[in-house]
Structures are given as C-alpha cells and as structure tokens.
Design brief:
single chain, about 260 residues, alpha+beta, Deoxyribonuclease I, Chain A, six-stranded mixed β-sheet, four-stranded mixed β-sheet, about 20% helix
Length: about 260
C-alpha cells in the first residue's frame, strides 16, 4: 500500500496506552509504520496528550477527542491537511458512560482535490466495557444523527466513520451503522470497508480499492499494540452509484434481476 494513489487513505488503530507493555518501543514502531503507509487521515485510540503533541510536531493537523480518562488517555483524529468545520459530542448517553472517561465522537470536514471534494471524517469511540450494548446503540444513534445534520447543512460529498467500536460485528450498534437494521426509528448505511474488499458488491459511495490489517505481527521483536490497525484506500467510482454506467446504453430486460445492473 505504499505506492502512488489518487483517492484517500484512512487508517484507524487502538495503539494501547504507552503506560502499558513497553510503550516507548511500541510508539517508535507506530511512528515508522505511519511514515511508511502515509495515511491521509488517522483515527487513533488510547493516545496521550504527548502522543497528540508528537503528531502535531510531525506536521499533522490534529483534533483530539473532547474527553480524557483520569490517567490521561484519549483519542485523536490526525490528518496531513488542515481540517475544516468540526463538531464534537461527548456521547454521555447514560450514567454508565461516565465509567469510560474518553468516549466521544469527532466529525471534521477534510477537503480533497477533485473528484473527491469535501469528506466528513468521523472518529467514533463508544464506551469500552463489554455488556454496554445499550449504551453503544445510543451512542451510534448520536453519531449517526450528527453526521446527518452536518451533511444536510454543509457541502459534504462523502462521510467515512472510523474508530474502535468495541462491539462485535453482529451487535445491534454495528448492524445499525452498516444499514442492516434500524434503531429508534432511524436507519443509515455506512459500508463496511473490510467486508467490501472481497464481495465487490455494486453501489458503494466510494470504491474500496484495498483494505489491509497492519501491525499484526511484531516489528523487530516489538508488538505495536494489543489491537491491530486497519488501512484502506478509497477512490471515487467511475460513475455515480445508482445510475447506469452508460446513460445511453441498453437497459436489462424486465425481470432479469438485480445482478445484471451495472452500478
């Protein structure tokens, strides 16, 4: 994933707070990997204020989450270009969410050259403890409504949601975000980039050119985190989703099925 590209490369990873498990060496591995991969935008969890300062010193523009834990752990959105309009929410949806001091969502506009245009990059971090699915559902609703409001009011073409979602893929909070079920009378649909790489189903807003796990294995004997990272390359499809590839070309015969449509 190190070659030239024409789209956008987002990456997300829970990097495990440096207070744990050989933090300085792990941070050195992470720094080298981000330099190698050169993501356009990073959503990192379990960072410290010192980590945020290091990202800024390296020339990245940063938007930290609005809440930090009592021991100084939080999350940050970082990009190689300046963010535009930014909104935040602390996701304090129940009394139990106080147990996760740094749950929050940040949504920031990021301008790219044509044909991408302005992208809304959303860093969603729900409450951590297992068994908090009710809170995760409410927090997913807050994030979805925030995205809908920004997209309705601003000149945003695309929205990408990243983060450490904590829940398993079959959880209602993630099924809701992926458009597989509704919550509280609301429905949205964010395409799962990992699932999109292999099935190649038609109709994504952005084409997922590649998606890889990173820092799965130790680097020079150092395991970067207790989580793995995810890096994707997203590009604009060669025609508008939902429209025929060739507006003047033939249409499929009635009853031929959705598999014949070029989307």
């Amino acid at each position: 994933m190190s070659g030239a590209r024409t789209g956008v490369r987002p990456a997300t990873m829970n990097v495990l707070a440096p207070q744990s498990a050989d933090g300085p060496n792990r941070r050195a591995v992470l720094t080298r990997e981000w330099e190698r991969l050169r993501p356009d935008v990073l959503a990192l969890q379990e960072v410290t204020r010192e980590d945020v300062a290091a990202l800024a010193d390296a020339g990245r523009h940063v938007v930290p989450h609005p809440r930090w834990s009592s021991d100084g752990v939080g999350a940050v959105l970082a990009a190689r270009r300046a963010f535009g309009h930014t909104v935040k929410d602390t996701l304090e949806v129940t009394a139990r969410t106080a147990l996760t001091g740094w749950c929050a969502v940040v949504a920031a506009e990021l301008p790219f050259p044509e044909p991408l245009g302005v992208m809304l990059v959303v860093h969603h971090k729900p409450s951590r403890p297992y068994g908090y699915e009710r809170a995760w559902e409410l927090q997913a609703l807050v994030t979805a409504r925030l995205v809908e409001e920004v997209v309705a009011e601003r000149a945003v073409r695309h929205a990408v949601v990243m983060g450490d979602f904590d829940a398993s893929p079959g959880a209602a909070s993630l099924r809701f975000l992926k458009g597989l079920q509704s919550l509280d009378g609301m429905s949205v649909c964010f395409q799962d980039v990992w699932s999109a790489v292999h099935p190649h189903d038609p109709g994504p807003t952005l084409h997922v050119a590649s998606c890889e796990r990173v820092l799965v294995r130790p680097v020079r004997g150092v395991q970067a985190s207790d989580h793995y990272g995810l890096v994707a390359d997203l590009t604009v499809p060669d025609h508008t989703p939902g429209r025929w590839r060739n507006a003047d070309g033939p249409r499929p015969a009635p009853g031929s099925g959705p598999g014949s449509a070029a989307r």
